[in-house]
Fold each of these.
Amino acid sequence: MRLFKYTGTISAIDGTGRDIILGDVSDFDKPPVRLTVPCREMAKYLIDRSWTDDEERYIHADWYYDGNLFLQYIEIPGDKPNVPAKVIASADGLASPQMVVFGEQEVIITDDPVSMSMEQYSRWREHRRQYF
């Protein structure tokens, strides 16, 4: 499956978390992207996070989506190059209503998150290879 990447934050979210608009407030020439969040748990996570003032909400993450504009997973960058602090993904591909989190399990409350452990990173790479 070919995936596309958008780097930015949520600029708008509907009341269910199923429809989001991504934007990049640091680059007004970059067009926004509207995505559907097919994973129910991920949609709930995003809507719950939108009601907080935690830093995770404001960090420019990498949002990966398919050609149908369905969100597949989110990578939140860490302090090491190419090793994210956290990945939020559907548990077993697009049809899954459940999500899985690699790295930091709680909502990130710092604007300088630490990258996940190599064990978590290996688990994430295996999951990505299997489902995406």
Amino acid sequence: MQRLQAIAVDLDGEAQIGYIPPTRIASWVAFLRQIAPYADPKRRMAERLCRNIGHRLQLLEFFAALLLLDYEVKRQSRGATSTLHETVSRMMMHQYSALATHVLEAVGTHLHRVNAGESNDPVSSTDDDWISAIVEQRLGGDRFNYARADLKEELIAMCRIRDQMTLLQVGDRESLDFESLTYEACFIPSYTTFADTLGALSPKWPKQTVLNERRKVDIGGNWRLRTEWENQ
């Protein structure tokens, strides 16, 4: 767990200045370039898109490190101790899920664009388009064991979490979205679906990234939840 913690400054002693860095942008770019590496340069993921996604992946690493540490502390203390204020942790869970969904949308939209015969030109893409593109691309690999319907449903579920901020469906009997932003209902499903989906699209997935810290070992509810976690 030490790798998940930021390095604190000791104000009473000799100051320690530093932090645990995220994965290098060059590593994320190398990973993204190996997602459907087309021979035609016009069909490859653009350099700017790779770097844009790479910086978002670094931010996701920051969110994941804090949330994984908080989850582990709460688990070990049976909820008696936490490292984040509850409001902060729940809002960070939503931020993680929303940003992870946007990253998958960016990758899926690129796949949709080149599958449609387009070059690196702007293209309209709905959730159905980019999700279908990822499902089709992903099911062709040998590192993925989801059924087609399972993968699609998990990606749709991430979109539902993302859309909670906009309150597209509001009713008097609806509970606050804050109540659903828990580790079991929000973060763990988003974290596992994101890692298992994106990480299987390219052999260059950085093995030491905190986004790959845990692997799922159990299934529950409508999500393939990791109810018990083990080190990768």
Amino acid sequence: MTYDQLDDLRKMTSEEAALAADLAAAIEAVLNEYPFKHKPRSMRFLGAGFGCMEIFCNNGVFTVVRNNGEELDTILELTDFKHTFISLIKLIYEGRQPDSFAEERYNDIF
């Protein structure tokens, strides 16, 4: 992914930006409450296991982009808020939490 493509993703309506922000806040809440290796985690800074991530919503599609320090790549593109949350939590906590963890966190938050 190029930085021009990233700039295009940032052109969200106010409603889309609010959905993306809500999703990012929910992910951050889980990372904050359930750190691993006894270190604080954040999706906005390198170190969450996937580099720093940013969430966008354009035309009903949630796109999660990560920067691993070398390149930008899209790790998820989904059309459902709940499915995007669950899929991203599963990616971050893969091998660290049981399969049910992501859906349980979604139900706790929403």
